[in-house]
Design a protein that fits this description.
The structure is a homodimer of 221-residue chains. By secondary structure, chain A is mainly α. Chain A is built from nine helices and three strands; from the N terminus they run αβααββαααααα. The two termini of chain A are 37 Å apart. At the A-B interface, α3, α4 and α7 of A face α3, α4 and α7 of B. Chain A binds a DNA duplex (30 and 30 nucleotides) through α3.
Chain lengths: 221, 221
DNA sequence: TTTTACATTTTTGAATGCAAAATTTGGGAT
DNA sequence: ATCCCAAATTTTGCATTCAAAAATGTAAAA
């Protein structure tokens, strides 16, 4: 199906930042680039608007969603809640094999931490959280989590990570894995909340920096 | 804007159950009824599909989303998580005035309970939960909560309520209000989880009943 | 020189048209 | 009479077209 594919491709363009937040989305240009007519493109844009990645302005076109610092904090709070819920549910349902896989992923992530490879560390970090969400066995939750993380993904990766914060995050991840292995739902929920709260603080700082950069970029352009 | 309006109208049609879950959505018919062409209708259907209210089948049209019991339980779990999160956040931010308003709504709900007016009781119940979510001051959370509750709303109201369960629900609501007034976030979160867990059990039973009814309806039709 | 009013252009929003896929219908064979 | 296969009809998906709104550019007046 064409329009499904289009949604994915535009989503990728937005998440890659190729169209930066706040920028206009030129229908005509995208139509040429994707070799489609305006009808499926517009359908895709409306789907993405429902997801929160695109803002539609009546008679003034669509723009890549521009998130304020407040928006970002709100989304992180929701993300925190969803991860905590996933952790609790996962403890009730997770299999030994899944715990083993997450343990392996964790060890890999720690290795990237020791090697100082932030990109790979983030990748592993994300994989672990996604594995926990998947282990909850709740597709509705998985879908919402995917939607929320997609909206904050870009900010997540511009986070300036200090050695102290990084060490803390790794330590928290040890505790997460531990609680999972003990299948301690309440404890895991608690840790995940604290874990994301720390992340949130990081991202808020990054958010300010990025906002300034964007403003600057807009003025230059 | 036309298509925005169309989304709302079709959503209402679906939530009213005028097009029952699992039934085909006839484009042609709806176009005539809403006096619009197929383009905005199809845009609206894709938005509703992104919301989870409509299922799109390639080259086979769209159907009103048919939720399995598993889907229902999943959504209730997510709803539980969001309400618990909202409760925690609300405790940090809620004003005395908002607590007062919720207290008033609570008293009203209890009055409807005493009068045995289940419909009005449900209405008040929903208003309270929505007020708590609103008090969290997190629009992203509010939006997701609205989306999730929309999908389970119909099931919520077909719940067969026994006197015992009803009494328990009212009691739990007393505890919710109490925790809010004490601004005890952790406690409120705990209560809300238990509160919805009880509800979930009710709805699961109702879910089975409704499924049978739908099957029957499909066979007749 | 600046501002405002108007015309032109561009872009958005919705309707229509057309090709492909699926469902339905009718005929024939078993 | 039932089952199966093919043709006709309906419906879906996308492209194109048309109308309306906004942006832009120009010219005239203050």
């Amino acid at each position: 199906m064409l329009h499904e594919d289009v949604v994915g491709r535009i989503r990728a363009i937005l998440l890659d930042g190729e169209i930066p937040p706040g920028a206009r989305i030129p229908e005509r240009e995208l139509c040429e680039r994707l070799q489609i007519s305006r009808t499926p493109l517009r359908e895709a844009l409306k789907v993405l608007a429902a997801e929160g990645l695109v803002q539609l302005l009546p008679h003034r076109g669509s723009r890549a969603a521009k998130l304020t610092d407040k928006d970002m904090r709100d989304l992180f709070e929701v993300c925190q809640g969803l991860e905590a819920l996933a952790g609790e549910l996962a403890c009730e349902r997770i299999s030994d094999a899944e715990i083993g896989a997450i343990g392996t992923a964790h060890d890999e992530m720690v290795r990237h931490y020791r090697e100082g490879d932030l990109i790979q560390y983030y990748r592993g970090n994300r994989a672990i959280h996604e594995a926990i969400v998947a282990a909850a066995g709740n597709p509705a939750l998985t879908g919402l989590y995917a939607s929320v993380t997609a909206r904050i993904r870009r900010a997540r990766y511009v986070t300036p990570m200090t050695p102290q914060r990084w060490a803390l995050a790794v330590k928290e991840h040890e505790a997460i894995l531990n609680a999972l292995q003990r299948r301690d739902g309440a404890g895991l929920s608690h840790i995940l909340r604290a874990h994301l709260r720390h992340k949130r603080e990081e991202v808020l700082q990054a958010g300010f920096a990025e906002t300034e950069a964007n403003d600057l970029g807009l003025r230059i352009a």
